[in-house]
Queue: 4 jobs
Job 1
Amino acid sequence: MLGERSFTVSQGTSVGSVTTIKGSEDAAGIVQGAGTATARPGGSVSYTVDVSNTGSVIYKDFEFIDVLPAQGTRIR
């Protein structure tokens, strides 16, 4: 039987992120899991987190919270 048929397409929620770190001894930033940052005592390590809406739903009042480890914690 031919004819029209209605159906509903569900909206999808999805968020992506990419983290980049760079130590004061590094020539370039290291993207998400591709290595570790290097800094001498007194040096610094910076990082950025780019968050993107990869779904089909508009987010309002989106909040990103990054909980940093306690001072002295060794991160691998």
Job 2
Amino acid sequence: MDQMCGRSTGPPLLPVRVVAARLGHADPVITLRVHAHLIRFAESAVVEIFTQALDQGSGP
């Protein structure tokens, strides 16, 4: 699975390799190092989405 990155108020999460190519980075590792804070945000956002989905599905 490809790692994803994105912004809290921007477009949906995108594969890092796509973002790296768009930014002109020769290697997606450069993108990951520079923009690691975005990936951490994405991870916490995914946890929140799953938590909400599980809470809604656990009704009476």
Job 3
Amino acid sequence: MDVIVMAEGDIPTGLAREHRYRELVEEALLAEHVDVDAFGSCHDLAARAAREVWNG
């Protein structure tokens, strides 16, 4: 069975963009660690974080 994680990249009120970006990178790293087949988002910030993890 394929497992795909979709992360929400929206930034809650009062949270710095950089903080949310770091959270998304951590989420992508965890997904990679547990062998998730794909990690994605419909938000540009999350997509950049995932690309950073998988592309080095």
Job 4
Amino acid sequence: MFRPKLPTMPHPTGTVTPPAVVEPTTITPGASTPPATIPVPTRPTVQLTPGTALALVGGGTAVVLVVGAVLVSMLLAVAITGASVAVCALVIRSLVNVDAKRR
């Protein structure tokens, strides 16, 4: 039951052709060609001037402030939602307790 079943090799059906005979070729030494040189792509160098450095710092600061504001607002939304659910739970519990005392 737990032994693997190995497939058997099928026997060829039909006519079998013999393999073709490959004759060796002679190698004649010739003039070797030098390998082609790979051109190196030229990229412009980035020069960091005080103006671009200030722009990078300003852009990074803006990104950090925007992401921070989004995260703080999401945290505040979760906190307000949790507080409102807690208040709703207290109100429902008090209503159930008042209804139970009347009986």
